[in-house]
Amino acid sequence: GTFPVPPGFSMTCVTRGQPSAAHCVAWHPHDKRGVFAVAGGGARVCVYAAETRTCIAFVWAADPTPARVTCAAFAPDPSLEAFPEAEDTDERGGMMLALGTADGQVRLVRLRMSDEKTKTKTYVARTVAAVTSSEKRFAISVLRFSPDGARLLVAADKELFVHEVVGAAAAAVHDRVETDEVVLDGDISATLSNAGKRVHTVRWLPSRVACRGHRGAIVSADWSTDGLIVRSTCRAREILHFDARSGRQAVGDFRDAEWATWTAPLGFPVMGVFQNGGNGGDEINSVSRRDVFSSSNDGEAIAATETVVAAGDDFG
């Protein structure tokens, strides 16, 4: 609605929020400002900086066609040794954000710093690739970049797909193709509306590996620290492991395996998230586990001294 502003008063936008319920949140793995993206089930994704509590970018899932965003994930920063700055500058290639949609698509969006002179640094977004990951057009439920950013794990219904990502890591962050089309699954008929540039999907997402075996819809997926094994859980309360290179189920003892992230509601390390009398998984909607490492005198990290687990359930 609208209302009149009393004489002598002015209005200032303090922050901007979501137009609907926030269905997914994706944190940037390295940005020291606490950058995170929030999707509310529509076409708009808001990117915030927790340090300043401001919205630094709006991303619209409108190219090549409008779509509802169901999940998101930030790619790791390229070449941290070469670009040790705390923020994602243009020299670093900006920020790479993957969006999963309700119609089974995966879109890569690059965010670069805006040229506008504002108090808060803002970003402009450009879609660089769009591919249909789920041939059956199931909604994308999980997105997860590998620790090196070279592969993207995609979950849709009961299937997992591992996409090779060329350019999201340290590869060709400066390359720009000067045309006015975007390639969607090899079709160049779709036209970008927000920028006059195109990057071939085959150049960014040239291949994929399928991982199958779950009996229920997948709810979580994580990478091992070496990027070789993928662990996933589903609504049938299965925990499966896959070889990320071949897509085959990996059989072995993974009790002592090291994981880059832990978002599974199942497993010994997070068994304490269930309350007494809980259903054993259905009431837990999200889990995030993080190891806190202590440092030696020479600055090298040693074994984890404690672990922090956050969980969200049906009861708020």
From TrEMBL:
Record Gene3D superfamilies: YVTN repeat-like/Quinoprotein amine dehydrogenase
Cleaved signal peptide residues: none
Keyword Repeat (UniProt): yes
Keyword annotations from UniProtKB, A to Z: Repeat, WD repeat
InterPro entries listed in its UniProt record: Quinoprotein_ADH-like_sf, WD40/YVTN_repeat-like_dom_sf, WD40_rpt, WD_repeat_EMAP
GO MF annotations in UniProt: microtubule binding
Domain of life: Eukaryota
Name of this protein: Anaphase-promoting complex subunit 4 WD40 domain-containing protein
